[in-house]
């Protein structure tokens, strides 16, 4: 697990937590977590393709935060290891739209206080039982950052009794071709990753009245794209983001690579892919 610099002190401690009791919750140093799965369910994020859904729920103490799949300039990206699961063919983690979390050590990307990650799971043998057990590594931060190594087995709970579950499922960004009318729409990208002043200008339509607008960009593993500057939408709900690529080690390494854009707002979230030029 790679750790990046925190704003204050980094607690150089790997917290190992055993599996939880019958209620499904496992205690953490600054909160609790559980893996919930009961078999087939009707709640599906847009990109789950009809597969069964499990849910990883992380509830943190007030003021604590955790990170998105791309943690930003400082943070710990979560990782899942399903080696001990039974009859599991695949598990695809779906991340709800994250927040930009400004920090003295650099802008981070993640979630405050609580998050539920939908997980689309598929059985290796469809007619046989499946058991879910995962080793999960992630970071939680406040004034210090604590990397956590957690092993959890799934517990079954009535999904309708999990407060806010449908909202977290609905907050998973829509993929191309699945965008709703209220979701952000990529309008244009101008600029280049090469040249003396490599930068990108990205226009996004969020819709009139949208708030909490933001844009996050991911490159293939091993490459990094800085966070765009913040942008306020105009009266028509359009915003222009500028990405200064001089902050990367070598912007030319991005040439020809697919960049994943996640656009978020109070009205919805969506993704788009753009090949860097």
Protein architecture, described:
It is a single chain. The chain is an all-beta fold. The protein is 2% helix and 43% strand. The protein has two domains: 9-170, Thiol:disulfide interchange protein DsbD, N-terminal domain (Immunoglobulin-like), CATH 2.60.40; 185-275, Immunoglobulins (Immunoglobulin-like). It has one helix and 19 strands. The strands form four sheets. Strands 1, 2, 6, 7, 9, 10, 12 and 13 form an eight-stranded mixed β-sheet that branches. It has a five-stranded antiparallel β-sheet with strand order 3-4-5-11-8. The chain is globular.
Summary keywords:
277 residues; mainly beta; Immunoglobulin-like; 2 domains; eight-stranded mixed beta sheet; 1 helix; 19 strands
What's the arrangement of secondary structure elements?
Layout: E1 9-10, E2 15-17, E3 26-28, E4 31-36, E5 52-60, E6 65-72, E7 79-81, E8 88-93, E9 99-101, E10 108-112, E11 114-123, E12 133-141, E13 144-153, H1 165-170, E14 185-192, E15 199-205, E16 214-218, E17 238-244, E18 258-265, E19 268-275
Parallel strand pairs: 1-13, 2-13
Antiparallel strand pairs: 3-4, 4-5, 5-11, 6-10, 6-12, 7-12, 8-11, 9-10, 12-13, 14-15, 15-17, 16-18, 18-19
In short:
With 277 residues, this protein is mainly beta.
CATH architecture of the largest domain: Sandwich
User: Could you tell me the strand content as a percent range?
Assistant: 35-45%
**How many distinct domains?**
2
CATH superfamily placement of the largest domain: Thiol:disulfide interchange protein DsbD, N-terminal domain
What is the residue-averaged pLDDT? 86
